[in-house]
Structure formats: C-alpha cells, structure tokens
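A note on notation is needed here, since sequence and fold are reported together in a single record. The reader may check this reading against the record printed directly beneath this paragraph.
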Amino acid sequence: MAGPAGLALRPRLAALGRRLLGLSAASSGDSFLVNGSMTVEKLKDLCREDEENVNPSYLLQLYTQAVLDITYFEENKLVDEDFPEKSSLQKVKELICLLLEPEIVIKESSMHQEPLKVLGTELLECLYWRKGALLYMYCHAVKERGEWLTENGEWFKKCLNDGIHYLLKMLSFRCPIQLNEEVSFDDADTARLLSDGIFSDTHLLAMMYSGEMCYWGLKYCEEGKQESHKTNLESNSESLYCSHSAVLDFREQGEKILMTYVAVCEGPLKGQKWNTATAKQILDYFKTLPK
C-alpha cells in the first residue's frame, strides 16, 4: 500500500472519478477530460502499490496534472457561457478549491517539503496562474452587472484581491536573474526580460491581468471604504479561498506592475505586438486619484 501521499489521495481520486462521470456526459470526448481520466486511473493503480515502489512527489505531480486538466474543461465551459449570474460564483469557488487541493495534500502527507520542491516550478506556476486567471475572467464578466455588483460588492473585491495575490505569487516562483560580471547574456533584450522576472508570455499576461484587476478594484468598488472593507474581510469567517488576509493597495500595486509591463513591452519586446494602450490608460487613471 502506498504511504501517506497515497492515503491522502485515495478519497480525492474517488471524488475526481465521480466528477469525471458527470462531466463526461456533457462532453464529446474532450481531450482534457480524457487525459484527466487516464491520469486518475493511473494514480489509482499506483496508490495500490507498495510504498517503497512509489515516489510520493510523482504521485502528487500526477494528481496536480489531473486536477489541471479536469478543471480546464470546466473553466472553458464557464467562459463559453459568460459566467451565468445565478450559478457562476459558486462554481468559481468550487474550481478554486480544487486547484488548492495539491498543496493541501502535500501538507497532509507530512512530506516536510515546500510545494515548489514537490511539484516543480512549472506545475506550481500553472496552479497559481489558473487560479488568478479564472478570477480575472470572472471579474471581467461580472464587473458591468450593476445590480449584481451592488449586492455582491464585498465578494467582488475579495475576488479581485485574491486573484491579484495568486498572479503575484505565480510571478514570484522564479527569481529575477541578477545580471553581473558572472552572469551575462549576449542578447541584451533577453537579459532585460529575465532581470524583470519575465520568463514567458504567461508571466507578461499575469502582469497585465493583475494591473487591470487593481484598476477594477478602484473603479468599481466604493471609494473611501477600503479600510472598513478590510475589517469586514479579515473578520469574515467565510473566507473565499486564500490563506492570506492582507488587502492590497490597488493603486500602489497596479502602478508598480503596469509600469514594468509598459517598459518591457515598449523596450525589449517592442515590435512583438504587445498592446500597451490599456495599461497606459489605467496608469493615467491612477494619476487622477488623490494621494
């Protein structure tokens, strides 16, 4: 029998199996669901093997990939349906909780290792990117729904706050490369990108998304109520998803991240068709706000 990781995974694999049964009826051989199903079945077999024959990190990496595949299908369905007003908030919460599970399993398995060590950079970045991007897409869909926003303003701001935290965390897993006499690149543009912590298009998108969400927080949430809202959020027993409780300074964080985004897009990535118009408009908006 597999060790603590296998034991922690067993009920979760059973739950994923039930989830797949329900989703498969609504899909026509979707490749992500097929891959997710194959991975779940492989994991079930591995969890039956002797502990010494199974690497727990490998089990958790497979589990993470299965979660990513299955939730990707469900996220796409939400996007295609434009996040239905009556049901999408609960569905988003559910998907975020699923995407949090790999790190929870690591803790339950008493592996005494950080998630980055167990899962690797790419998988962990993907988990945080998917959580942040899902909240970005959800907030983008609901921000213009005036009546909903009036009734659910606190949740909206919580979604923004958590989404930005997830994206910033995603950007933090790879440390910017510090250029010096011992570390140099023949390509100056590549050196600039790496020193700014940009290792892929996804990193750049994460910057733009988090900057936009900071803007929405200031534009659509009630002005002058950030402090009282902070108290409400930090004392709210029904926390949305994040383990953190800190509420961001939307303006400060937005300015910082979008200035970097614009500088990179108009510097080393000039001519690569990265649009900076929206980022510049947001930065101009920040300038109109009182200090």
About this structure: The chain has two domains: 1-119, 150-291. The two ends are 61 Å apart (CA to CA). The mean pLDDT is 86. Residues 56-80 form the longest helix (25 residues).
